[in-house]
Amino acid sequence: MDSTIKAATIAPPRPLIRTSGTSGPVNALLSLVSLRALRSLLLLLNGFILLLLLPFRRRTVMVSAVEGEEVEGVSGARKGTGRGGATVVRVPAGMVPRRPRDFHEAAARRGMAIRRMGVEKEEEDEGRRSEREFALFATARGDTLFTRSWAPVSVQTKGLVVLLHGLNEHSGRYNYFAKQLNDNGFKVYAMDWIGHGGSDGLHGYVHSLDYAVDDLKAFLGKVLSENSGLPCFCLGHSTGAAIVLKAVLDPKVEARIEGVVLTSPAIEVQPSHPIVAVVAPIFSLLIPRYQFSASYRSGPPVSRDPEALRAKYSDPLVFTGSVRVRTGHEILRISSYLQQNLSKVTVPFLVLHGTADTVTDPEGSQRLYNEAPSTNKSIKLYEGFLHDLLFEPERDDIAKDIIDWLCSRLGSLNRIQK
After folding, report:
1. Whole-angstrom Cα distance, residue 234 to residue 257?
2. pTM of the predicted model as reported, rounded to 2 decimal places
3. What are phi and psi of 370, to 5 degrees?
4. CATH of region 26-31+100-417, choose from 3.30.1490.270, 3.30.390.50, 3.40.50.1820, 3.20.20.100
5. What share of the chain is helix, strand, coil (3-state, %, to 5)?
6. Taking phi first (over 0 means left), then psi (-120 to 50 degrees means alpha), and beta for anything else, what does residue 195 get?
7. 3-state DSSP call for residue 350?
8. What pLDDT digit, counting tens, does each position of 194-220 carry?
9. Whole-angstrom Cα distance, residue 278 to residue 283?
10. 324-336: per-residue pLDDT in tens?
């Protein structure tokens, strides 16, 4: 494997603002300047105004006192007769809780994730290396997140790794890597963050990356409480790496882990035109879920392995639509925050990046290495590699680099304890 460890500044081509999935460039915001886009915007604003007026429409829900049925309607009557002569009491629709459409879509994805795990476990029953489980994790906001774990079967557990996937993908994609970690004595936990995989939320939509940061902190606390005494590491990819990095800037979180591994972190993400940064906050409030262009089923080039690309972009649990306005704004926001706080990163870390990455800028990883005051930091830049390092043809070599660093950290901790 042709990899290099560098401390010098590199100068890759200036990237477009892209996600780690298939979302198009955020600088597509500029398309709103065209006359056609302005007309579409006016129609959207008109719909938004009409939506605001909906609460003033008199709507009632008929609740059967006998059968508990619910029938929605518009009526001025307070009582009526339901099927079979049952007394019907009419109440305002606002008093009856409703499940949003996103709930059903997320439930379908969750069911798919659970069924897929069952099939994979059956295929691996003979000679299995890992004990895999899934669990549902409730957030403080009331959302339900889909989580997974991989436990070593024949190797003693010596450490924990909490893994966070990148934007638009899901934790199940890291099954192969998790088993490699199991083989080396690491129990792995992973969480599909909000709007991803089997978790609640509109697919590919992120209202706030701070939600994901808070969820990671809570999930980490749960993992540590269930595995008392075991050293714990966090590993994040792309936007997931940015979430991990922001979480460990909290001293309370940093004190509970022994280090972080960041692959292709979304640190250096800049709009290709200054106006994007100006209009993104505005449109993220007005039309947060709006998508700017058609989906890209082929996706951006994130791996040099054609089979890995085919598997990613044919996976229904991977979001293949173009970027939503709010999501793009959140990426820019967390990137800006991290750039302003690199000098506060004191946690031990290993950062890895491909020099040919067109999704996130490897210069951001170099800046992290140069500016972070951490006394235990390492960087590996892989010449010519793309964004999804753990899905590149040299994935086994990259996994070995990560595992070697984790084992080295464990060795240092053991020496200190002795």
Report:
1. 7
2. 0.77
3. -75, -40
4. 3.40.50.1820
5. 45, 20, 40
6. left
7. strand
8. 999 999 999 999 999 999 999 999 999
9. 10
10. 888 888 999 999 9
